[in-house]
Amino acid sequence: MESLLRDLRLAFRNLLRYRGFTLAALLCLGLGMGASSALFSVVNTVLLKPLPFADPERVVMIWNQFLLQDIPKAPASGRELMDLRSQSSVLEEAGGVAPLLVTLKAADEPEELLAGRATASLFEVLGVKAALGRVFTPEEDVFGNDIALLSHQLWRDRFGSDPEIVGRKITIDERPVIVTGVLPEEFSFGTSRFDLWVPLGLAPDRMLPRDFRSATVVGKLKPGIRLDQAQAEMDVIAQRFQREYPESYPQGSGYRILVVPAHEDLVGNVRGPLLVLLGATGLVLGIACLNVANLLLVRATTRSKEV
Fold first, then answer.
1. Closest CA to 253 of 1, 5, 100, 68
2. Where in 200-262 does DSSP place strands (E)?
3. Nearest CA to 200 among 64, 76, 88?
4. What is the pLDDT of residue 269?
C-alpha cells in the first residue's frame, strides 16, 4: 500500500511538472470519453430501454400496406379501426390517434400546436395514467367533445405547472375546452410530440369515408399471442376487406395489414443512424487513446538518456 501511494504521488508530481502534456492528454481523453458517454446515453434511452408503456412487449403498431403502389406503411381510417376492434380475436384492445393542428389562446397569446385526436382506448392500450386529473373515459370519446389532455411540457411551459389546471377552461380554435388531466412527463408517442390530446370519437354516423386514412393504430395483443399469429389473422381480415370493399382495396394494389412490434416500429428509422454514430464515437475514443499513447512515446524519447 505504501508503495502504491508513493507511485501515485510521483505520478501526480510529474503531471504537474509537465502541464502541457497533461493538458493535451486530458483534452484528448475528455473529448473521446465525453462524446462516447453522451451518445451511449441516447442509444440506451432510445434503443435499449423498453417503451414507457404497460406490457410493452405486447404493444404493436398496425399499418395498411399497398406494396404494389409503393406504400409500405399507411395509416388507417376510422372505419378500418372500428372493424379491427370488432373482428380481431388476437387483440385485447386497439386505439388510434390522428394529428391535428390547433390554435391555443392562453394569456391573449395565440399559439399553433400539434394535437392528437385519440380514442380513449389508446390510453388503455398504452397503460398510461394521468399525472394530474385523468385521461378520457369511453363515454367522453365523442367527436367534438370539448375536453382536452395536456402534455406535461405544455402544462409546464404555458400554464406554469398550475396544480389547479384540471377542470379549468382553455380556448382551442376559439372554443372553450375543459382540461381533464395532464399526462406524465416521461410519456411520449414515438417521434410525434403532441402538445395536447382531444377525443377522436368514432361515431358511425359522423365517420368519414373508408379511404380517408389519417389514424395511427396501436393494438395490444392478448396474453400468449405471438406476432406470427397476429399477422396471420390480419392477413385474413385484409382478404375480407378486399372482398367486401373492392373499390377501397383494389386487387392490383398488393394490399395487406402489417403488424409490427411497437418498439421496432417507433425506433426503426433511427436505429441505423444511431448505431453508426455510436461506432463513429467509439472510433473517436480509440483515436484519442492512440494520441495519448503517442504523447507518452514522445515524452519517453525525451528521457532516453536517463534510461
1. 68
2. 216-221, 255-261
3. 76
4. 62
